[in-house]
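User: Can you recover a sequence for this backbone? Please restate the input before giving your answer.

Assistant: Of course. Working from this structure:
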């Protein structure tokens, strides 16, 4: 993985990670997901990464975001 990418969000719910990724995209922040969940039992995490330059802004947006 590239050195300039930072994990900013992790969840066990894939839909929450996708909603967060889309919200960041709406704010012109490029991000990507890595799904580390087991395919049979659905345990594990889905991780959201952004470029190091966008970390502070992305974390602020994630904290304000409502996942319901």
């Amino acid at each position: 993985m590239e050195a300039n990418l930072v994990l900013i969000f992790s969840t066990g719910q894939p839909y929450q990670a996708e909603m967060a990724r889309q919200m960041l995209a709406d704010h012109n922040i490029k991000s990507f997901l890595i799904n580390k969940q087991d395919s049979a039992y659905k345990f594990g995490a889905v991780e959201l990464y952004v470029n190091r330059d966008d970390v502070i802004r992305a974390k602020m947006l994630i904290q304000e975001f409502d996942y319901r």
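That completes the design. The two ends are 31 Å apart (CA to CA).
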